[in-house]
Amino acid sequence: MKKIGLTGGIGSGKSTVARILLAMGYPVYFSDDRSKQLTQTHPDIRKGLTELIGTQIYRDNRLDRSALALAIFSDGALREKVNQIIHPVVRADFDRWVEEQTHSIVFNEAAILFETGAAERFDAMVLVTAPLELRIQRVMKRDLCSHEEVVSRINHQWTDAQKMLLADAVIVNDEVQPLIKQVEHMLIRLA
After folding, report:
1. 3-class SS at 181?
2. Taking a C-beta distance cutoff of 8 angstroms, is the pair 118, 91 a contact?
């Protein structure tokens, strides 16, 4: 079974590409969505986050995502510690998910596969890119946040130029070039 990482910076449209792959019949593991579920339910994550940050990080038995985001985007060392708590659990969950799949190719959609070194676990890497201002506008609309907040998040990720050097295929999601055609071409190249 071939495992392909599908990544891109915030607002690039990697989830849109992932939904196209799903519609084409390919299994896709949505790391960010699973991570959100696991931070609510997995005892090791809950224990690690409360020991690191305090019990107030869970309010009404739910992770306070806004407080966590604010804390980790302003403190790189804390962000790394949080990643060390969450990422191993998500990786193990992905490995279990892969074992349940029967398709010859599976995809893992995640924002920071290169940044965390997780890209090494895949047979190929696909990068979804988009013009910076379009990414900012998408995230502002989706998350109802300010321009400055989005730029701060973007600045904590690798640039597209850095990721392109390591990607096996690049899909440009600029709302001009047809996505389905690019996805089909990528599948021919990487299958």
Report:
1. helix
2. yes
Q: What phi and psi, each to the nearest 5 degrees, are found at residue 101?
A: -85, 150
User: What 3-state DSSP class applies to 126?
Assistant: strand
Helical ranges in 101-159 per DSSP H: 132-143, 147-155
Q: What is the pTM of this model?
A: 0.91
* Count of CB atoms situated within 10 Å of the CB of 9: 23
What tens digit of pLDDT does each residue of 25-43 get?
999 999 999 999 999 999 9
Rg (CA), the chain: 17
Q: Which helix (H) or strand (E) holds 51?
A: helix 43-53
62, with CB counted inside 10 A (0-12, 13-18, 19+), is exposed
pLDDT tens across 169-183, in order?
999 999 999 999 999
Give the CATH architecture of domain 2-190: 3-Layer(aba) Sandwich (3.40)
Helix axes 65-73, 43-53, angle to 10 degrees: 60
Find, among 78, 138, 83, the residue nearest to 110 by Cα: 83
* Mean pLDDT of all residues belonging to the chain: 95
DSSP 3-state of 13: coil
Domain ranges of the chain: 2-190
